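Following up on my earlier message about histidyl-adenosine monophosphate. Here are the inputs again, as you asked, copied directly from the submission form:
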Amino acid sequence: MRNFASFADDKTDSGKMSNTIQSVRGMNDCLPDAADAWQAFEAIVRDWLRRYGYREIRTPILEHTGLFKRAIGEVTDIVEKEMYTFVDELNGESLTLRPEGTASSVRAVIQHNLLYDGGKRLWYTGPMFRHERPQKGRYRQFHQVGVEALGFAGPDVDAELIVMCADLWRALGIAPTLQLNTLGDHAARQRHRARLIAHYEAHRDALDADAQRRLHSNPLRILDSKNPAMQAINDAAPRLMDELEDEALAHFDAVQQRLRASGIAYEINPRLVRGLDYYNRTVFEWVTDQLGAQGTVCAGGRYDGLIAQLGGKPAPAAGFAMGVERLLALVEAAGRPLEQAAPDVYVVHAGAAAETYAWQVAAALRGAGLAAILHCGGGGFKAQMKKADASRARHAVIIGDEEAAAQQVTLKPLRGTGEQTRVELALAIDYLNNATI
Ligand code: HAM
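Thanks, got it. Here's what our run produced:
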């Protein structure tokens, strides 16, 4: 099977191993076999988004650094250590390669006043950049498909976002599991934060360096620690659930009710806090154990405060983003490769008259909507037929002097059974457009 999820992955640190220049570490080439699978995936995704009424937004890959600092939070892994930030030497501005798409989407929505006539359902796709330690499923340039529903306050849209993910997983033949939590509203989180600080202060000597540093700036993130030495202190930490107001709890219940009604299985994970600061209320992650350490294929939640925080008229919002590399790896692990694109026809020809006619035939085939590769580079029929086979085309169209003189083509099936036949071009086109092999 073609390995379409992994790339021509460069393991060198600086690309200076030999005198050939390599790609930047953690940034991968997507070669044609992989690109075929990406295109098949993108076609499924575009159709899925269209059916849910989401419309595409395209924002620049570079933004002012301050956007991400304000949106994602100063004391987060992304902003503290993972952003590709540089000074534009021409004007001294600090710019950052986007590490995610929510901040840019919200910036654009505010800048262009997109919510003036009510809520908007938006999506985007493209490369994101994080200076993380590369490993399987974790890259420095990776790709997301992101969905943002802006201007909707109710639990219905939270549930819709989750249900639509489940729908896509079915279409892709994969089955990640859903983890769900609620972070409540601002006041509850402030109370929880104060209690957490008190708890960690009481255990100050046992905290690791990361936790010490985050104690006052972002104690919630300490809960997320992967350090086994922090496990016991974290297990005993005050729970946000105990601080939540009735309204936030009712919202969470209403989301769950809709998920149950839609037959979506989920697990409530009170430890799910997310690595970006803008979330409130519902948060969720779709996870799998089939990809090793990087098992989160899609994640998101509600972020009602972000639009106002970035200077817009207050409006609620929720969304998610999926990692394309991880999803494709999961599709591959499920043994359901996405269909590879193959040409319909490979046109072989020998002789000057045949070549002139072959050009016309190839143009007519393409004009009729068929994918036709015209053999280039000369050679005899035998060598050309080898190329035709290797091209994975369904049929060869063979043109010699006889065909050229008669203005006909010889059609030879390259896959499955079937006889080679000489027919009028129009008939061949008709046949090829209806052929199933
Ligand atoms: P995130 O959890 O940072 O959320 O990223 C979403 C997904 O992107 C992850 O679950 C993962 O599949 C993929 N991903 C993240 N980092 C990498 C990496 N270094 N290599 C490969 N894949 C990666 C966000 O970005 C939010 N903007 C999601 C969101 C949208 N929330 C509301 N709206």
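One observation from looking it over: The longest strand covers residues 120-129. Hope that helps, and feel free to reply on this thread.
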